[in-house]
Specification:
Elements: E1 2-8, E2 12-18, H1 22-31, E3 37-48, H2 54-62, E4 66-67, E5 90-97, E6 100-103, E7 108-109, E8 113-114, E9 120-124, E10 129-139, E11 150-162, H3 170-174, E12 180-183, E13 186-189, H4 199-203, E14 211-226, H5 232-254
Antiparallel strand pairs: 1-2, 2-14, 3-10, 4-8, 5-7, 5-10, 6-9, 11-14, 12-13
Helix pairs in contact: 1-5
Length: 255
Amino acid sequence: MKIEKIKETDERISFLVKDADFSFMNAIRRSIFEIPVLAFDTIEFYKNDSALYDEILAHRIGLVPLKAPKSFTRKEECSCEGKGCMKCTTSFKLKAKGPGTVYSSELKGKGANIIYKDMPLVILDKDQELEFSADATLGTGKEHSKFSPGLAWFNSFPEITIKGCDGCSKCINVCPKKAISMKGKEITIDPMKCDMCEACVDVCKELKDAIKINPSQGNFIFTIEAFGQLEPRDIFIESIKTLDSNLKQIEKEVK
């Protein structure tokens, strides 16, 4: 198996995986939801005069991405035996009074960082008050989506064949991804942009199928978009480690 990076930014990474199969790629994708991520798990409201019920507001607060220190451990694996301590739990407080919008930056605490400071939580009208405390712990996406480090998806690499093209350029106009270009009277299709919608194939049927696009069975384009808790590259590395750990556990059980 070979991996070639296509594009990488602070929030997203895309790479080409060669000589793999669907089951392996899907195993990596699913393993991402077993990476421990910090999120608000317990919230105690003292005052909530806002238009949102406690449950709705708690859900919004739970989705605020947090960055945990490397020394943090899961509550179940901590030496405190799940009671909650500085090694596995961090606490935040918020106190606000309207009118105005309450943002995530108003959450005050130690032991973790709020990644996005400008996330709106709720709007308070005049004289409305909001006060609560919230505890954050490590969890996995299998338990709740708030513990997910990001999104991951993969597509088959398009295998493109062009034969008998007369250079009419009709396919260029219908391509939604602008993946088709023309040099002289010859068209070329960028496989990195092509999403195999086959709009070009349909418009080209009059020319006895000059363009054919088939999904590869062994090459894939894999993309990860991070929510901020981890770098996209780190999410991929951690998912591989998680998959490897699970396979070793299966091997141990089988023996």
